[in-house]
Amino acid sequence: MKKPGLAFMLLAALSLAGLVASGWILKKRVAHERADKTVQIVVDYPSILALSPDGESARLAVERLTEIGVYSFGVFETRIDDLVGNGSLEVNTVPKGGAGGGWEAKVADPNAWALASSFFEAHFGPGACDAATMICRIPALGEKRSDFSFGMPATEYDFRTTPRPLNTPFEKRESIALKMKALDAEKEPSVVIFDGSAVLGSPTLIEAAVEEMKRREGWAFGMVEMTAQEGARTFAKKLPGRVLVAHSISAEEIAITPQRKAVERFRRAARERGVRVLYVRFYSNMYGQPARQEIERNIEYVGRIADALRKDGFVIGKAEPQKPLIISKRSRAAAAAGAVAFVGLLCAVAFGLPAWISLAASLLTLAAMFAMPETAGHYRQALKLVSLGVGALTPALAVGVAFLVGLRSKATRSMPGLGEAIARWAAACAITLAGAAFAAALLSHRDFFLRLDSFSGVKIALLVPLIIIAVLYLRHTGETLASFLESPVRKAEAAACAVLLVVVALYLLRSGNEAGGAVTSAEGALRSRLEGLLSVRPRFKEFAIGHPAMLLIGVAPLAKRRYAALALLFLGVIGQASMFNTFCHLHTPLEISYIRTILGIIIGLIIGVGARTAAMIFLEIADVFTLPRK
């Protein structure tokens, strides 16, 4: 590379200014996250009743749980089968020849008349019910009968509740208004968590349900994570400033989940994913003991969850929706321009890209960020685009700049000393972390923290670095793509290539905001042990693959048609891209991401040094046996 000119120096200055602005934003974000430490525990009331047929045990359990710190109890709507089951309602089929067919719902209990008739008429129109006969004529509900509901119970509980309204196929604006009216009876509003597979009003009347919520101050929408509840994100986006992320273990899951793992899961949700509402169900007949003892064991279980949260520094109480993180426009603009300049700087070093091109792009970015209004949709898209660019380019450029620039291509092993290898690896990590700081700062916004928006193009940011490092390797060794493709493949190389392809496939499959791929039982056990030992689990792709591979670079020769070094570069880039991706999980508190990364670096260094030492010993022994005898 030529002697740095004025454009290069200006590029470096813009990069440094952007990094300072990013650091300022991230400092504010850490303070913002530390201020949000209240977690609300909600216990499912029907799961308590299931162990208390007489009701007295349930009352005592509620008192005990409240003392532990449980803030509210989840209650559900009254279903049509509930009224039929207790004799309050009789449903009969009307022959098609009479009254037009359909069903007749006769209210047998006068106390249930007001509730039943109001909902039947809200769903099926005025005149559906006759007060004189207490009969409502409704369409035949068929298989949908069990879905029909009558809103929240009119019972006055002596504890705080978390309503669980149910979306049914029959909803109209009138029925939604009637259901949400039940919130007015609550003395202390907190959070609503919708029951079922869709939010109230989905798919066409979500706006009506949102308007009902907006009329009632103090109520927040509990959006359950890891659950595909139809319309949840749409509902949350229409209700800014009144969203809480909740975590729940379903009734089916809780039946097969050991209590210890359930406690760890709730604890991890609050500590590592910004969850502030924990919806806890009692275990039912899991211990094979009398009901009172079953309740006692479940109370102890909830107590362990509360103790674990307090140990992590959380306060148990009423969760409040997250306040917006206020960042000045000039800080974000400086960070965006600095990010572009930073990538341009790396491209100038790695590829010899003229600095003035990157300088112009950086200044244009600065001007564009100031020109666009912050409330405009394209402002957010611009921030995401810059972040994606940094994510797609930085990991590979970091490895290329640290390990390829300035090293001569040799057909024999040119093994740098351990100190030099560690220094080059540390430089690559520092470059990647600087890029991650830019992206984390640009996307530090409440919508990302609440999962209402996410880092776009995760798979692109994981795949592109592999392509870039391959180009840099060919450029460094002087090999052309044609000769690379035509070169004969040795058996060992074919086997290594197959292993590498499997690693890359798993790397792409198991990465992202919603990572796929099943976790094996052995991996799950190892994860649990690491979490138990270190509290925050570092990523396997970093400490077990990426960092050790980078410390082995140089053991294999960097030369044409010698591809062991290329394989190590690929694995090293996978680790760097994973490290960058850690900071793109924006719902994870920033301090947790840094702890996870630092632990991965420390463990990866230990493993890498061990692997490098073993490789050097092996190669020395191999050389002894392969040297020609005199």
Number of strands: 12
Q: If you average the pLDDT, what whole number results? A: 87
The general outline is: elongated
Helix fraction bin: 55-70%
Which residue ranges are poorly predicted, with pLDDT under 50 across at least 5 consecutive positions?
Answer: none
Structural class: alpha/beta
- Total helices: the number is 23
What features would you describe in this structure?
The protein has 630 residues and is of the alpha/beta class. 56% of the residues lie in helices and 8% in strands. The protein has 23 helices and twelve strands. The strands form two sheets. Strands 1, 2, 7, 8, 9, 10, 11 and 12 form an eight-stranded parallel sheet that branches. A four-stranded antiparallel sheet has the order 3-4-6-5. Helix 7 links the parallel strand 8 and strand 9. Helix 15 packs across helix 21. The longest helix has 37 residues. 40% of the residues are buried.
